[in-house]
Amino acid sequence: MRLFLVRHGETVDNVAGVYAGTRDSPLTAHGVLQAKRLATDFATKKRLRVTHIFSSDLKRAVDTAIAVVDELKGGDAPELKAKRLDLVQLPELRERDFRSGEGKKFGYVQTDAETPGEMRVRAGKFLEGWLLPILDGDGQEEAEGEEAVVVVAHGLILGSLWRVLLSRFGGSGLAGRPGVGEGHVAWSNTGYLELLVTAERDTSASPDVSDRAVAGDVGDDTLGGVGASARVVSPSLLSSGCPTSAMLGVSDRIVSERVISDSATSVVPSGDRKPQQPRYQMTVVGVNVLTHLEGLKKTRGGIGSARFDKRQRTMDSFFGPPSKKAKGDRG
């Protein structure tokens, strides 16, 4: 399965340089164009079948995600791209709550903002409640194209989700990639992190297992407050926007695996053994992908940075095909 973690388009608060977490800052005119470019990018990806799309319930993320949904449903081969596709809006995917710092200029010292641990709790709930059920059911239905899940949210919460994913699945393909330095990943407006998540399934009976990571045991806090075995029955460029770096502290490759206890092997009767759960591996395909914005220029004179007005028309709309006139109208 392909997983795309996408940041919303440019907003009024991004341009103003103020902290916008739970503030419902709207997209700028340029941000809307970015969202449209993003939507076209997804609609033209070969053999990609978007089965689920999630977003924060804040307007800037919702509007960006809606652009993608609309393009997928109206583009080529909609039955392949977006069959029965609906947008799921979730408060768990909201940006960091800056609380007293909301609306303040970057650099404002705040002591009551939402903590990284609190954000990982939200990200963990999304993983357990939404992404894992999709992964567990991946491949059970015969369908054409590669399954993809799109998550449209905000830079800081995406960073928290990224850390939770690494803790759960590990990651490969990190070394030498632009945008992945020593401990951080960045998201520009409509930039996305593309991941490939694959499962190694073993249906043979096995003893009960315990979750450990090759790099060491993973605590509840790292998993966003959700135990590794828990299940929920129910997921301009870098200069514009708030800081989106997320500390990772990971090696080039960490593979999460289930370790079978030697002592358990000798004492568990075969009749009491249960099938292993799928073991997933995550590979980084692209970091802060922005190829869809190539050639896009921001309108000068402050128009591009202004709040988008639905009554505005894009330049493309002025250069559509000329209307056909009857011969009698000539001259």
From TrEMBL:
<dbReference type="GO" id="GO:0043456">
    <property type="term" value="P:regulation of pentose-phosphate shunt"/>
</dbReference>
<keyword id="KW-0378">Hydrolase</keyword>
<feature type="binding site">
    <location>
        <begin position="7"/>
        <end position="14"/>
    </location>
    <ligand>
        <name>substrate</name>
    </ligand>
</feature>
<dbReference type="GO" id="GO:0045820">
    <property type="term" value="P:negative regulation of glycolytic process"/>
</dbReference>
<dbReference type="InterPro" id="IPR029033">
    <property type="entry name" value="His_PPase_superfam"/>
</dbReference>
<dbReference type="InterPro" id="IPR013078">
    <property type="entry name" value="His_Pase_superF_clade-1"/>
</dbReference>
<dbReference type="GO" id="GO:0005829">
    <property type="term" value="C:cytosol"/>
</dbReference>
<dbReference type="InterPro" id="IPR001345">
    <property type="entry name" value="PG/BPGM_mutase_AS"/>
</dbReference>
<dbReference type="GO" id="GO:0004331">
    <property type="term" value="F:fructose-2,6-bisphosphate 2-phosphatase activity"/>
</dbReference>
<feature type="region of interest" description="Disordered">
    <location>
        <begin position="302"/>
        <end position="331"/>
    </location>
</feature>
<feature type="binding site">
    <location>
        <position position="60"/>
    </location>
    <ligand>
        <name>substrate</name>
    </ligand>
</feature>
<dbReference type="InterPro" id="IPR051695">
    <property type="entry name" value="Phosphoglycerate_Mutase"/>
</dbReference>
<protein>
    <submittedName>
        <fullName>Phosphoglycerate mutase</fullName>
    </submittedName>
</protein>
<dbReference type="Pfam" id="PF00300">
    <property type="entry name" value="His_Phos_1"/>
</dbReference>
